[in-house]
């Protein structure tokens, strides 16, 4: 199969300014990895980089027409069987319609990993309505069907782990310098049990409940964010990872940091309401209802490192058996191309239409 994978692949165009801004854990890269391992031909197209480099003064919105033109040139040469769109905002729906003419029988799927409740993403979810054949979202919400056309469907997409990306084994670290890792990219309030707390306040309250807690919280408060190799080092330097999404009551939604933590071999703490206890039992992850429950669990794991390491290993093993990127890729292909869609996966396989 020939796959055209479209998204921001961080081609160096000068807009990064002080950093390369590499998002090494991005799911679009993981799709490319899995497709190559499946012996599929993959071409990556960075719509934003093309638009930016073609625009006057590097003003990306002015280069959208050039991105369309170059995209269609690639389609014409590759004649892909499948086009995956990852927030490919600089590719117009008109260009996608033309892509169907150039590559007869091509299937087009839109991938969306952002929170479904934000106004920006709510608009983006419907942006390919009537153009894409499928919408895959990292939230198990049947109402996503309203964002697809009459012949298309929406489906759940789990956050995967990839053997080329999540390469650590934190549970093999005999003496990590930190007890708990909690990265956050902003101070937007988040669900912590029944409370809505900014990350800085949430960590302050947790530290007060867990005396002596060695906390690594990149991006929280005045702490610098950890990117690239610095993030790899952060994952390897803690025993426990707190996976705190902006909302915990949305079915099977989580920041992709959850996959990073499990895939890297940390003992992972999750709000019970998110529903991930359908995949992990209490020996494989911590599930809490309120901040006090989380604090008590963290205290227990710090006091019994053998227990913490055993939990981390079991959660790691479960994650790699269920959410391996090659398996998630096979699931997406089954949803798109198999009669009746995908079957026999642990997560919801309905095609909402």
Give an overview of the whole structure.
This protein is α/β, with parallel strands linked by helices. 35% of the residues lie in helices and 15% in strands. It has 11 helices and 13 strands. Strands 2-1-3-4-5-6 form a 6-stranded parallel sheet, sandwiched between helices. A 5-stranded parallel sheet has the order 10-7-11-12-13, with helices on both faces. It has a two-stranded antiparallel sheet with strand order 8-9. It is globular and about 65 Å long. The mean pLDDT is 93.
Query: Please, what is the average pLDDT?
Result: 93
Q: List low-pLDDT spans.
A: none
CATH architecture of the largest domain: 3-Layer(aba) Sandwich
Report the order of strands and helices: EHEHHEHEHEEEEEHEHEHEEHHH
Beta-strand percent range: 15-25%
Percent helix range: 25-40%
Strand order of the largest sheet: 2-1-3-4-5-6
In one word, what is the shape?
globular
SS element count, helices: 11
CATH superfamily of the largest domain: Glycogen Phosphorylase B
Total number of beta strands: 13
Summarize the structure.
The chain is α/β, with parallel strands linked by helices and 353 residues long. The chain is 35% helix and 15% strand.
């Amino acid at each position: 199969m020939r796959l055209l994978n479209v998204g921001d692949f961080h081609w160096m165009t000068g807009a990064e300014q002080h950093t390369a801004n590499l998002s090494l854990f991005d799911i679009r890269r993981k799709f490319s990895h899995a497709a190559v391992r499946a012996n599929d031909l993959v071409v990556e197209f960075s719509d934003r980089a093309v638009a930016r480099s073609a625009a006057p003064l590097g003003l990306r919105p002015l280069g959208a027409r050039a991105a369309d033109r170059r995209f269609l040139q690639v389609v014409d040469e590759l004649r892909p069987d499948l086009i995956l769109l990852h927030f490919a905002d600089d590719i117009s729906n008109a260009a996608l319609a033309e892509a169907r003419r150039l590559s007869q029988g091509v299937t087009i799927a839109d991938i969306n990993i952002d929170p479904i409740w934000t106004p920006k993403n709510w608009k983006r979810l419907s942006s390919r309505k009537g153009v894409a054949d499928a919408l895959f979202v990292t939230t198990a919400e049947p109402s996503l069907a309203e964002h697809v056309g009459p012949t298309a469907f929406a489906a759940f997409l789990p956050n995967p782990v990839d053997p080329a990306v999540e390469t650590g084994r934190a549970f093999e670290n005999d003496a990590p310098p930190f007890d708990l890792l909690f990265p956050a990219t902003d101070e937007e309030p988040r669900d912590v049990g029944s409370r809505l707390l900014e990350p800085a306040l949430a960590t302050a309250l947790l530290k007060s409940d867990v005396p002596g807690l060695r906390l690594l919280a990149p991006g929280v408060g005045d702490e610098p964010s950890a990117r690239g190799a610095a993030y790899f080092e952060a994952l390897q330097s803690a025993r426990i990872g707190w996976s705190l999404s902006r909302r915990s009551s949305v079915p099977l939604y989580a920041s992709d940091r959850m996959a990073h933590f499990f895939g890297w071999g940390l003992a992972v703490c999750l709000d019970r309401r998110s529903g991930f206890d359908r995949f992990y039992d209490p020996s494989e992850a911590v599930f809490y209802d309120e901040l006090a429950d989380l604090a008590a669990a963290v205290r227990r794991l710090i006091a019994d490192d053998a227990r913490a390491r055993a939990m981390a290993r079991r959660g790691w093993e479960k994650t790699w058996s269920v959410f391996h990127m090659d398996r998630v890729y096979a699931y997406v292909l089954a949803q798109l191309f198999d009669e009746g869609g995908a079957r026999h996966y642990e997560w919801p396989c309905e095609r909402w239409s």
